[in-house]
Design goal:
- This protein is mainly alpha-helical and 159 residues long.
- 79% of the residues lie in helices and 0% in strands.
- The longest helix is centred in the last third of the chain and has 56 residues.
Length: 159
Amino acid sequence: MTKPTNTTDSPQDAAQVLYLLGRQRDLYLQLKSLADQQGQLIETGATEQLLSLLARRQGLIDMLGQCSAEISPYRARIGDIAEQADGKVSEQIKSLVQEVRTLLESIMEQDDRGRQNLAESRDAVSLQLKQTAGVGAAIHAYGPKAGNQAAARYTDRRV
């Protein structure tokens, strides 16, 4: 007995895939915008704004997770659905798949650069802290010792 092939992808499936891919693309565009802003905030050291942006970004990632769960039943069949859809819908599906892939790659590259910049900033701050601690120790090493206040050697005595 041979396994039947699924050639019954309906126009409703194509419409649903088209809608979900469009939604996914829109969310990735918003995420890309935040990723670009994040890079600028890391470079300028704007910590408060960065934390706010990361919270907004997490909200988008949560929405992308929902969208991914909704598209999951179609994921293995998207190519077949696109091939069976009429010409315009087929091209839109293929275009959206490519656009989503490109956006995701771009976001991942931006995130990698952001992680690298954060690590460099962290290392620079760590070095500054170590140098500052060393300066403080040097100042204390040459200061007066507690309980060992030297009396003035020369005084103005009048006889």
